[in-house]
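Reopening: C-alpha coordinates for the NAP complex, inputs below.
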Amino acid sequence: MPVSDARDLIIVGGGPAGYTAALYAARANLNPLVIEGVTFGGQLMITSDVENYPGYPEGVLGPAMMQDFRRQAERFGADFITDDVTAVDFSERPFRVEIGGDVYYARAVIVATGASARQLGLESERMLQGRGVSYCAVCDAAFFRSKNVVVVGGGDSAMEEAIFLTKFADKVTVVHRRDEFRASPIMLDRARANPRIEWITNAVVDEVLGDDGKVTAVRIRNLNTGEKTDLPTDGLFVAIGHDPNTKLFLDQLDHDEAGYLEVQPGSTETNIKGVFAAGDVADHTYRQAVTAAGTGAMAALDAERLLAAEEGHEATALAAPRAEAV
Ligand code: NAP
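Re-run output (same inputs, fresh job):
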Protein backbone atom coordinates (compact mmCIF):
# COMPACT_ATOMS: atom_id res chain seq x y z
CA MET A 1 0.00 0.00 0.00
CA PRO A 2 1.47 3.44 -0.88
CA VAL A 3 1.61 5.88 2.02
CA SER A 4 -0.76 8.21 0.13
CA ASP A 5 -3.47 5.52 0.47
CA ALA A 6 -3.22 5.49 4.25
CA ARG A 7 -6.42 4.36 5.93
CA ASP A 8 -8.05 6.16 8.80
CA LEU A 9 -7.71 3.21 11.11
CA ILE A 10 -6.03 -0.16 11.49
CA ILE A 11 -7.07 -2.40 14.36
CA VAL A 12 -4.50 -5.03 15.35
CA GLY A 13 -6.16 -8.01 16.99
CA GLY A 14 -9.42 -9.89 16.63
CA GLY A 15 -10.98 -10.54 20.01
CA PRO A 16 -13.85 -8.82 21.82
CA ALA A 17 -11.87 -5.55 21.98
CA GLY A 18 -10.75 -5.55 18.34
CA TYR A 19 -14.13 -6.55 16.90
CA THR A 20 -16.03 -4.04 19.05
CA ALA A 21 -13.60 -1.30 18.02
CA ALA A 22 -14.19 -2.39 14.41
CA LEU A 23 -17.97 -2.21 14.84
CA TYR A 24 -17.87 1.30 16.28
CA ALA A 25 -15.24 2.51 13.80
CA ALA A 26 -17.12 1.07 10.81
CA ARG A 27 -20.32 2.76 11.95
CA ALA A 28 -18.35 6.02 12.20
CA ASN A 29 -17.24 5.59 8.55
CA LEU A 30 -13.59 5.11 9.46
CA ASN A 31 -13.40 2.11 7.10
CA PRO A 32 -11.29 0.10 9.57
CA LEU A 33 -8.96 -2.68 8.56
CA VAL A 34 -8.83 -5.40 11.22
CA ILE A 35 -5.66 -7.48 11.14
CA GLU A 36 -7.17 -10.17 13.31
CA GLY A 37 -4.30 -12.66 13.62
CA VAL A 38 -4.05 -16.24 12.40
CA THR A 39 -5.70 -17.45 15.61
CA PHE A 40 -8.42 -14.80 15.45
CA GLY A 41 -11.16 -14.63 18.05
CA GLY A 42 -8.80 -14.40 20.99
CA GLN A 43 -9.22 -16.27 24.23
CA LEU A 44 -12.97 -16.66 23.70
CA MET A 45 -12.11 -19.26 21.04
CA ILE A 46 -10.76 -21.46 23.83
CA THR A 47 -13.55 -20.82 26.30
CA SER A 48 -16.58 -23.05 26.76
CA ASP A 49 -19.84 -21.58 27.98
CA VAL A 50 -19.79 -17.84 28.50
CA GLU A 51 -22.41 -17.17 31.14
CA ASN A 52 -21.47 -13.64 32.11
CA TYR A 53 -21.79 -11.71 28.86
CA PRO A 54 -24.95 -9.58 29.05
CA GLY A 55 -27.46 -10.28 26.32
CA TYR A 56 -27.04 -14.06 26.33
CA PRO A 57 -29.35 -15.18 29.15
CA GLU A 58 -28.89 -18.85 28.29
CA GLY A 59 -25.10 -18.50 27.90
CA VAL A 60 -23.21 -18.83 24.64
CA LEU A 61 -20.17 -20.72 23.40
CA GLY A 62 -17.10 -18.47 23.18
CA PRO A 63 -16.36 -19.18 19.48
CA ALA A 64 -20.03 -18.60 18.54
CA MET A 65 -19.97 -15.28 20.36
CA MET A 66 -16.81 -14.22 18.53
CA GLN A 67 -18.43 -15.11 15.19
CA ASP A 68 -21.34 -12.85 16.19
CA PHE A 69 -18.95 -10.01 17.08
CA ARG A 70 -17.07 -10.39 13.80
CA ARG A 71 -20.24 -10.60 11.68
CA GLN A 72 -21.62 -7.48 13.28
CA ALA A 73 -18.47 -5.48 12.45
CA GLU A 74 -18.43 -6.94 8.93
CA ARG A 75 -22.05 -5.87 8.39
CA PHE A 76 -21.01 -2.24 8.74
CA GLY A 77 -18.08 -2.55 6.35
CA ALA A 78 -15.02 -3.48 8.43
CA ASP A 79 -12.31 -5.23 6.39
CA PHE A 80 -10.41 -8.20 7.78
CA ILE A 81 -7.03 -9.80 7.18
CA THR A 82 -6.59 -13.15 8.93
CA ASP A 83 -2.86 -12.89 9.47
CA ASP A 84 -0.34 -11.80 12.10
CA VAL A 85 1.27 -8.36 12.13
CA THR A 86 5.05 -8.81 12.01
CA ALA A 87 6.26 -5.24 12.64
CA VAL A 88 4.95 -1.76 13.41
CA ASP A 89 6.52 1.68 13.17
CA PHE A 90 4.76 4.29 15.28
CA SER A 91 7.58 6.85 14.99
CA GLU A 92 5.64 9.01 12.52
CA ARG A 93 2.16 9.31 11.06
CA PRO A 94 0.72 7.73 9.09
CA PHE A 95 1.77 4.70 11.13
CA ARG A 96 3.27 1.71 9.38
CA VAL A 97 1.96 -1.81 10.00
CA GLU A 98 3.62 -4.78 8.31
CA ILE A 99 2.52 -8.32 7.60
CA GLY A 100 5.64 -10.02 6.25
CA GLY A 101 6.52 -8.03 3.11
CA ASP A 102 3.12 -6.28 2.92
CA VAL A 103 2.96 -2.76 4.33
CA TYR A 104 -0.17 -0.90 5.44
CA TYR A 105 -0.48 2.70 6.62
CA ALA A 106 -3.05 4.30 8.89
CA ARG A 107 -3.56 7.65 10.60
CA ALA A 108 -4.64 5.84 13.77
CA VAL A 109 -4.00 2.36 15.16
CA ILE A 110 -5.84 0.46 17.87
CA VAL A 111 -3.78 -2.29 19.52
CA ALA A 112 -6.07 -5.08 20.73
CA THR A 113 -3.81 -8.11 20.65
CA GLY A 114 -4.98 -9.54 23.97
CA ALA A 115 -3.09 -11.97 26.13
CA SER A 116 -1.96 -15.60 25.74
CA ALA A 117 -1.86 -18.69 27.92
CA ARG A 118 1.18 -18.98 30.16
CA GLN A 119 3.35 -22.10 30.00
CA LEU A 120 5.13 -23.92 32.82
CA GLY A 121 8.40 -23.51 30.94
CA LEU A 122 9.49 -27.16 30.99
CA GLU A 123 11.31 -28.61 28.02
CA SER A 124 9.24 -31.81 28.39
CA GLU A 125 6.08 -29.68 28.33
CA ARG A 126 7.15 -28.11 25.03
CA MET A 127 8.07 -31.49 23.53
CA LEU A 128 4.68 -32.96 24.38
CA GLN A 129 2.48 -30.02 23.33
CA GLY A 130 -0.39 -31.36 21.25
CA ARG A 131 0.59 -34.87 22.38
CA GLY A 132 -1.19 -34.71 25.69
CA VAL A 133 -0.09 -31.26 26.87
CA SER A 134 -2.79 -28.67 26.21
CA TYR A 135 -3.70 -25.09 27.14
CA CYS A 136 -7.30 -25.38 26.03
CA ALA A 137 -9.74 -27.86 27.50
CA VAL A 138 -12.50 -26.81 25.13
CA CYS A 139 -10.28 -27.56 22.15
CA ASP A 140 -8.84 -30.85 23.37
CA ALA A 141 -11.07 -32.37 26.07
CA ALA A 142 -12.81 -34.70 23.64
CA PHE A 143 -9.49 -36.50 23.08
CA PHE A 144 -9.55 -37.57 26.72
CA ARG A 145 -12.83 -39.44 26.87
CA SER A 146 -12.70 -42.02 29.71
CA LYS A 147 -9.11 -41.04 30.52
CA ASN A 148 -7.33 -39.40 33.43
CA VAL A 149 -6.00 -35.86 33.16
CA VAL A 150 -4.18 -33.34 35.31
CA VAL A 151 -4.98 -29.60 35.44
CA VAL A 152 -2.36 -27.20 36.83
CA GLY A 153 -3.50 -23.92 38.42
CA GLY A 154 -5.66 -22.49 41.16
CA GLY A 155 -7.52 -19.67 39.39
CA ASP A 156 -10.87 -19.49 37.61
CA SER A 157 -9.32 -20.83 34.40
CA ALA A 158 -8.12 -23.97 36.16
CA MET A 159 -11.55 -24.52 37.76
CA GLU A 160 -13.33 -23.94 34.46
CA GLU A 161 -11.01 -26.33 32.62
CA ALA A 162 -11.28 -28.99 35.33
CA ILE A 163 -15.10 -28.85 35.36
CA PHE A 164 -15.29 -28.94 31.58
CA LEU A 165 -12.88 -31.88 31.42
CA THR A 166 -15.10 -33.97 33.71
CA LYS A 167 -17.63 -34.09 30.86
CA PHE A 168 -15.13 -36.36 29.08
CA ALA A 169 -12.43 -37.66 31.40
CA ASP A 170 -13.04 -40.21 34.17
CA LYS A 171 -10.81 -38.39 36.63
CA VAL A 172 -9.37 -34.89 36.72
CA THR A 173 -6.64 -34.07 39.23
CA VAL A 174 -6.08 -30.39 39.98
CA VAL A 175 -2.50 -29.65 41.02
CA HIS A 176 -2.02 -26.29 42.71
CA ARG A 177 1.09 -24.79 44.26
CA ARG A 178 -0.69 -23.42 47.35
CA ASP A 179 -3.55 -24.62 49.54
CA GLU A 180 -5.47 -21.39 49.01
CA PHE A 181 -7.13 -20.69 45.73
CA ARG A 182 -7.26 -17.56 43.63
CA ALA A 183 -10.44 -18.83 41.93
CA SER A 184 -13.75 -17.13 42.74
CA PRO A 185 -15.74 -18.93 45.46
CA ILE A 186 -18.54 -19.92 43.06
CA MET A 187 -16.14 -21.60 40.61
CA LEU A 188 -14.18 -23.25 43.40
CA ASP A 189 -17.35 -24.58 45.06
CA ARG A 190 -18.56 -25.97 41.74
CA ALA A 191 -15.26 -27.74 41.19
CA ARG A 192 -15.14 -29.03 44.77
CA ALA A 193 -18.64 -30.43 44.43
CA ASN A 194 -17.65 -32.41 41.35
CA PRO A 195 -16.95 -36.04 42.35
CA ARG A 196 -14.64 -36.59 39.37
CA ILE A 197 -12.19 -33.91 40.51
CA GLU A 198 -9.34 -34.77 42.91
CA TRP A 199 -6.94 -32.28 44.47
CA ILE A 200 -3.21 -32.11 45.11
CA THR A 201 -2.17 -28.86 46.79
CA ASN A 202 1.18 -27.39 47.77
CA ALA A 203 2.65 -29.13 44.77
CA VAL A 204 4.02 -28.36 41.32
CA VAL A 205 4.56 -30.30 38.13
CA ASP A 206 8.32 -30.69 37.71
CA GLU A 207 8.35 -32.83 34.60
CA VAL A 208 6.01 -34.23 31.99
CA LEU A 209 6.80 -37.84 31.24
CA GLY A 210 6.04 -39.36 27.87
CA ASP A 211 6.38 -42.58 25.98
CA ASP A 212 6.17 -42.92 22.22
CA GLY A 213 5.43 -39.17 21.93
CA LYS A 214 2.46 -39.24 24.31
CA VAL A 215 2.03 -38.08 27.89
CA THR A 216 2.04 -40.99 30.34
CA ALA A 217 2.59 -39.26 33.70
CA VAL A 218 3.58 -36.03 35.42
CA ARG A 219 6.27 -35.80 38.09
CA ILE A 220 4.78 -33.93 41.03
CA ARG A 221 6.94 -32.27 43.68
CA ASN A 222 5.45 -31.61 47.11
CA LEU A 223 6.56 -28.10 48.06
CA ASN A 224 6.46 -28.85 51.81
CA THR A 225 8.44 -32.08 51.80
CA GLY A 226 10.30 -31.95 48.49
CA GLU A 227 9.04 -35.48 47.78
CA LYS A 228 8.58 -36.35 44.12
CA THR A 229 5.86 -38.68 42.87
CA ASP A 230 5.02 -39.81 39.36
CA LEU A 231 1.28 -39.49 38.79
CA PRO A 232 0.11 -41.52 35.79
CA THR A 233 -2.02 -39.41 33.44
CA ASP A 234 -3.05 -39.23 29.82
CA GLY A 235 -3.04 -35.45 29.60
CA LEU A 236 -1.81 -32.25 31.20
CA PHE A 237 -3.86 -29.07 30.96
CA VAL A 238 -1.90 -25.99 31.93
CA ALA A 239 -4.20 -23.22 33.23
CA ILE A 240 -1.90 -20.81 35.05
CA GLY A 241 -2.86 -17.44 33.62
CA HIS A 242 -1.88 -15.28 30.70
CA ASP A 243 0.70 -12.84 29.36
CA PRO A 244 -0.08 -9.82 27.19
CA ASN A 245 0.74 -10.10 23.49
CA THR A 246 2.85 -6.97 23.34
CA LYS A 247 6.25 -8.10 22.05
CA LEU A 248 5.80 -6.07 18.84
CA PHE A 249 5.10 -2.87 20.74
CA LEU A 250 7.35 -2.90 23.79
CA ASP A 251 10.06 -0.66 22.33
CA GLN A 252 7.52 1.95 21.19
CA LEU A 253 4.66 1.98 23.67
CA ASP A 254 4.80 2.53 27.44
CA HIS A 255 4.10 -0.64 29.39
CA ASP A 256 4.25 -2.01 32.91
CA GLU A 257 6.68 -4.62 34.23
CA ALA A 258 4.54 -7.50 33.03
CA GLY A 259 4.33 -6.00 29.52
CA TYR A 260 0.74 -4.70 29.70
CA LEU A 261 0.38 -1.46 27.72
CA GLU A 262 -0.23 1.70 29.69
CA VAL A 263 -3.08 4.02 28.76
CA GLN A 264 -4.15 7.40 30.08
CA PRO A 265 -6.64 6.96 32.94
CA GLY A 266 -10.20 7.03 31.63
CA SER A 267 -9.14 6.68 28.00
CA THR A 268 -7.41 4.28 25.62
CA GLU A 269 -4.65 6.71 24.59
CA THR A 270 -1.12 5.34 24.74
CA ASN A 271 2.00 7.51 24.96
CA ILE A 272 1.88 7.95 21.16
CA LYS A 273 -0.79 10.26 19.77
CA GLY A 274 -2.99 8.26 17.41
CA VAL A 275 -2.17 4.85 18.90
CA PHE A 276 -4.78 3.42 21.24
CA ALA A 277 -4.88 0.21 23.28
CA ALA A 278 -7.97 -1.81 24.19
CA GLY A 279 -8.81 -5.07 25.90
CA ASP A 280 -6.58 -7.45 27.83
CA VAL A 281 -3.44 -6.04 26.22
CA ALA A 282 -3.83 -3.06 28.55
CA ASP A 283 -5.80 -4.68 31.37
CA HIS A 284 -4.39 -7.13 33.87
CA THR A 285 -7.14 -6.42 36.38
CA TYR A 286 -10.54 -7.14 34.87
CA ARG A 287 -9.75 -9.28 31.81
CA GLN A 288 -13.36 -9.96 30.92
CA ALA A 289 -14.94 -10.13 27.48
CA VAL A 290 -17.37 -7.42 28.46
CA THR A 291 -14.64 -5.06 29.70
CA ALA A 292 -12.55 -5.78 26.60
CA ALA A 293 -15.54 -4.96 24.42
CA GLY A 294 -16.11 -1.79 26.44
CA THR A 295 -12.58 -0.55 26.00
CA GLY A 296 -12.75 -1.53 22.31
CA ALA A 297 -15.69 0.85 21.92
CA MET A 298 -13.76 3.51 23.85
CA ALA A 299 -10.74 3.11 21.56
CA ALA A 300 -12.84 3.56 18.42
CA LEU A 301 -14.49 6.65 19.89
CA ASP A 302 -11.09 8.02 20.98
CA ALA A 303 -9.67 7.41 17.49
CA GLU A 304 -12.68 8.98 15.80
CA ARG A 305 -12.54 12.02 18.04
CA LEU A 306 -8.85 12.54 17.29
CA LEU A 307 -9.22 12.11 13.53
CA ALA A 308 -12.29 14.34 13.41
CA ALA A 309 -10.54 17.06 15.42
CA GLU A 310 -7.58 16.88 13.05
CA GLU A 311 -9.92 17.22 10.08
CA GLY A 312 -11.82 20.05 11.74
CA HIS A 313 -15.24 18.43 12.27
CA GLU A 314 -17.15 16.81 15.11
CA ALA A 315 -16.90 13.07 15.70
CA THR A 316 -20.14 11.52 14.37
CA ALA A 317 -20.19 8.47 16.63
CA LEU A 318 -19.87 10.70 19.67
CA ALA A 319 -22.46 13.09 18.35
CA ALA A 320 -25.01 10.35 17.56
CA PRO A 321 -25.99 9.31 21.09
CA ARG A 322 -26.56 12.95 22.07
CA ALA A 323 -28.82 13.42 19.04
CA GLU A 324 -30.76 10.22 19.81
CA ALA A 325 -31.13 11.17 23.45
CA VAL A 326 -32.99 14.37 22.59
P1 NAP B 1 -5.02 -16.30 37.51
O1 NAP B 1 -6.21 -15.82 38.23
O2 NAP B 1 -3.83 -15.43 37.40
O3 NAP B 1 -4.59 -17.68 38.18
C1 NAP B 1 -3.43 -18.35 37.77
C2 NAP B 1 -3.23 -19.53 38.69
O4 NAP B 1 -2.11 -20.30 38.21
C3 NAP B 1 -2.95 -19.15 40.12
O5 NAP B 1 -3.60 -20.03 40.99
C4 NAP B 1 -1.42 -19.29 40.21
O6 NAP B 1 -1.00 -19.66 41.48
C5 NAP B 1 -1.14 -20.42 39.25
N1 NAP B 1 0.19 -20.31 38.64
C6 NAP B 1 0.73 -19.26 37.98
N2 NAP B 1 1.95 -19.55 37.52
C7 NAP B 1 2.19 -20.83 37.89
C8 NAP B 1 3.27 -21.72 37.69
N3 NAP B 1 4.36 -21.35 36.99
N4 NAP B 1 3.19 -22.96 38.20
C9 NAP B 1 2.08 -23.34 38.89
N5 NAP B 1 1.02 -22.56 39.10
C10 NAP B 1 1.07 -21.30 38.60
O7 NAP B 1 -5.38 -16.68 36.00
P2 NAP B 1 -6.72 -17.28 35.40
O8 NAP B 1 -7.23 -18.42 36.18
O9 NAP B 1 -6.38 -17.52 33.98
O10 NAP B 1 -7.79 -16.10 35.51
C11 NAP B 1 -7.47 -14.83 34.94
C12 NAP B 1 -8.69 -13.90 35.06
O11 NAP B 1 -9.76 -14.35 34.22
C13 NAP B 1 -9.26 -13.84 36.45
O12 NAP B 1 -9.69 -12.54 36.71
C14 NAP B 1 -10.44 -14.77 36.39
O13 NAP B 1 -11.45 -14.46 37.33
C15 NAP B 1 -10.93 -14.60 34.98
N6 NAP B 1 -11.60 -15.81 34.50
C16 NAP B 1 -12.95 -15.93 34.70
C17 NAP B 1 -13.61 -17.08 34.28
C18 NAP B 1 -15.08 -17.20 34.48
O14 NAP B 1 -15.63 -16.44 35.27
N7 NAP B 1 -15.76 -18.13 33.82
C19 NAP B 1 -12.91 -18.11 33.66
C20 NAP B 1 -11.53 -17.98 33.48
C21 NAP B 1 -10.88 -16.82 33.91
P3 NAP B 1 -1.04 -18.62 42.72
O15 NAP B 1 -2.48 -18.49 43.10
O16 NAP B 1 -0.20 -19.30 43.76
O17 NAP B 1 -0.43 -17.35 42.21
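The chain is about 25% helix and 25% strand. The chain has two domains: 3-116+242-325, 119-238. Marking as resolved unless the reporter disagrees.
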